[in-house]
Amino acid sequence: MGARDGPTLISSVQRAMRLLEAVSAHENGAPAKQLARETDLPLATAYHLLRTLVHDGYVRKLDDGGFVLGDKLQSLRATGRAQALLNRVRPTLNALRDELATAAYLTFYEDGEIRVAEIVDGPGTPRVDLWVGFEDAGHATALGKTVLREMDEESRRDYLARHHLADLTPRTITSLPELLRRLEAPPLAPAVTDMEEYALGTVCVAVPVYSGDTLGSLGVSLPAHRLSRLPEIRERLLPTASRVTRGLSLTI
Q1: How far apart are CA 103 and CA 97, in angstroms?
Q2: Confidence of residue 80 (pLDDT cuts 50, 70, 90)
Q3: pLDDT in tens, 134-185
Q4: In this structure, are residues 185 and 228 in contact, taking their beta carbons and an 8 Å threshold?
Q5: pLDDT beyond 50 at 252
Q6: pTM of this prediction?
């Protein structure tokens, strides 16, 4: 009993975390001897752990022998911030799903690609089968076309030059002039629709959102036989998109 009932702790992991904390306290770097002293670790142990952390990208060794945090840790920090932002708006997405009885989707345009950031669905509101990645289907989805519509002309031209308008269903728009024409004046503007262009039997409607300066889209998918609900859903999506944008734009 007693100590044996407590959690199993891995001491090497604890030591590595202590070293990372010590490294983070020195913006200009600190040598291994100083880090070992600050963490009460034997110098040999500190060297071994630092070598491993450097190898995996969590720590970087400077030319003068000091150690600073590595790029991978900075990437984890950015990912954590993105997750915190999504946590803020996830209740709003859940409420949208429950209110409209549809799966809800959130995308962003990042690093030249339209990427899905979050999907909120459930047993009675299944997501569409993402059989083709959104990076290759921006022209065929309401979410992707919303982003394309909101882009400036130069960014849109660049995106379309890098992406083939693949024929995903008999309804997919594969003519660039026709796609641009429809983007200019969608019937439910500022909402954009996908009329079985990505998956037969499924229609979607989406509206723009922003996370700071990052453009994105919020949308829902539903069976094609519920097509008549699109105008009603548009009216629910617009205020929800405003709430999502406000939530995503708050500074952490």
Answers
A1: 6
A2: low
A3: 888 999 999 999 999 999 999 999 999 999 999 999 999 999 999 999 999 9
A4: no
A5: no
A6: 0.71
Cβ density class 43-59: b for 16+ within 10 Å, e for less? eeebeebbeebeeeebb
Q: How far from 213 is each of 96, 108, 109, 149, 175, CA to CA, in Å?
A: 24, 11, 10, 16, 30
3-state secondary structure (DSSP) of residue 152: coil
Residue 202's CB is within 10 A of a number of other CB atoms, namely 19
Of 209, 211, 251, 228, which Cα lies nearest the Cα of 104? 209
Dihedral pair phi/psi, residue 2, rounded to 5°: 65, -125
Task: Name 21's Cβ contacts closer than 8 Å, sequence gap at least 6.
Answer: 39
Q: At what angle do helices 142-150 and 153-162 cross, to 10 degrees?
A: 140
186 vs 173: CA distance, rounded Å: 14
Q: Could you give phi then psi for residue 66, rounded to 5 degrees?
A: -80, 165
Segment 112-139 mean pLDDT: 91
| Paired tokens of 166 | 């693949």
Q: Which two tokens stand for residue 41?
A: 């670790």
**pLDDT per position as a tens digit, 5-34:** 666 778 888 899 999 899 989 988 999 999
Query: Which residues make Cβ contacts (< 8 Å) with residue 15, sequence separation at least 6?
Result: 39, 41, 45, 49
